[in-house]
Amino acid sequence: KMRISSFIWILHLMNLSESQGATDVLRWKRSSSVSSDCQAGCATCSAPNGCLSCRPRFFFHLELDGMRQRGTCLSSCPRGHYGARSPQISSCAKCNADCASCFSENFCTRCHPGHFLFRGRCESSCPHGMMANALMECTPQIHCRVGEWTSWGPCVRKKSTAVHKRGEETRTRQVLLSPSVFGGPCPHLSETRKCGIKKRRKNRFNSATITEGKIISNEITIKSLKKGNYYNV
């Protein structure tokens, strides 16, 4: 009889303990907005374990607190983790070992030192024909391409040129494709060379000068009958 009574008392204490634990969780849930032990993103929490579940749009994440783990609810996952959403619970999952950060389990966005990002994966080296940029991302190696030369421009004499009959003429070309960071650079886009300036011909009449229809000199002049003046043509 004493054994039966002791057994019933033990069951009563166990039920009381479970009821007290549920009350503690509920109490933390109600006071989560003001409690320092229960974060704002938590839906339910307990003093020793932190967050037990999260509010909508928050991710559940376990953080080390000394020798034990505590639950936290974050609006975005920390570095090295990505947010995995599901109808049951949204949680932070760890990226692959080579990824410093990732968008999903199979898509890295940044790599650890010594690895290079190529199409969402972290590789030990970039594929052939590609080079790593400053962010350690594999990018195509593009060399510069230029168009054809234009025709030579007019021969122009510069003021600094001592010889009056010598000048310079220039031709240019355009860039068709700009190079990548480690691609081949563009060649010079303009060329200048020396040239000879052609002497301009002056229109001069080597005929006799006439006035009133009569030849009077070796230049063509016309007498103004009204003013009595001569004009050279």
Automatic annotation (TrEMBL):
Residues 1-19 form the signal peptide. Keywords: Disulfide bond, Glycoprotein, Secreted, Signal. Gene3D superfamilies: Hormone Receptor, Insulin-like Growth Factor Receptor 1, Chain A, domain 2, Thrombospondin type-1 (TSP1) repeat. Residues 40-138 form the R-spondin Fu-CRD domain. Pfam families: Furin-like_2. The keyword Signal applies. The keyword Secreted applies. PANTHER family: NEUROHYPOPHYSIAL HORMONES, N-TERMINAL DOMAIN CONTAINING PROTEIN, R-SPONDIN-3. This is R-spondin 3. It comes from Kryptolebias marmoratus (Mangrove killifish).
